[in-house]
Amino acid sequence: MQPHQLDGEVRAELSTLPKSLADAVARHLVMAGEVVEEDPDLAYRHAVYARRKASRVGAVREASGVAAYKVGKWQEALSDLRAARRLTGNNSYLAIMADCERGLGRPERALELARGPEAQRLGGEDRVELRIVASGARRDLGELSAALAELQGPELKERRARPWVARLFYAYADVLEELGRTVEAREYFAKSSSVDREGATDADDRLAELEGVEIVDIGGDVVWSDAEDPEFDEDDDEVDEGGIPGEAASASSDERAPERDARAPDDSGRRRPDPED
């Protein structure tokens, strides 16, 4: 991993450090970013090293905050992201900060962040991610109708295939199902599946469950089978020519997240499991 692989703006922030130190911190930040999804514990260790060496650099605190969030260290993530916001004025991580409040058992504080003046200035994607977390906070409080209302808006008519769109449709479907509105839930799980090109959700699995079918991997191909059909044999890999429909994504989201993009919270608005604190 080389320092030049780091984003130009981040390299500019690191230029306040001695060159050898800046290069060392940059390499750890690059590595943290590379492995944060497949090995969040390793990413966290790299980010912690960078923070120890350059704790007054906003981009470093952002990276360490996201890495801490990925491994369920809610308080540490919150502290780092608060520091980053003070250093940079960047509010794009409000969704993660709010989700950390939920992880710490403080859904009311998550809602305060979602209603604050900084939240009103967020761009479209960041604003939607924060609404997903706010919806989860409402569910934490047992306010299902309010949880649904948090997600309603013009973005529900979005047709572009974007991870944040898939997560919004998924979260909306999840609340609808919990409210017993199964027909509408099926519609929005289907919408989530149709725009989820990156496997950001497990919408296919949820839709299959509602339809009473299973998604089965046969020799590397994915097919939908009738879960109640005793004639269906998962071990039978002989499929008539032309009988296999297109592949369906079956990956479940787990940091939702950001971005997801590491910034993204869990798709249903629920915080990530297994906190280490």
What does this 3D model show about the protein?
- 55% of the residues lie in helices and 4% in strands.
- The protein is built from 13 helices and two strands.
- The protein has helices at residues 8-14, 19-35, 40-53, 58-70, 74-88, 94-103, 107-115, 117-120, 124-140, 144-151, 163-178, 182-195, 203-211; strands at residues 213-218, 221-226.
- Strands 1-2 form a two-stranded antiparallel ribbon.
Task: Give a brief description.
The chain has 13 helices and 2 strands; from the N terminus they run αααααααααααααββ. The protein is mainly alpha-helical.
Main traits of this protein?
single chain; disordered C terminus; two-stranded antiparallel sheet; globular; 277 residues; mainly alpha
* Strands, count: 2
Helix vs. strand class: mainly alpha
Distance between the termini: 30 Å
Show unreliable segments. 234-266, 273-277
| Cα Rg | 21 Å
Largest sheet: 2 strands, antiparallel
> How would you name the oligomeric state of the polypeptide chains in this document?
single chain
Strand content: under 5%
Strands side by side in the biggest sheet: 1-2
The averaged pLDDT comes out at 82
Output the number of helix runs.
13
Order of helices and strands: HHHHHHHHHHHHHEE
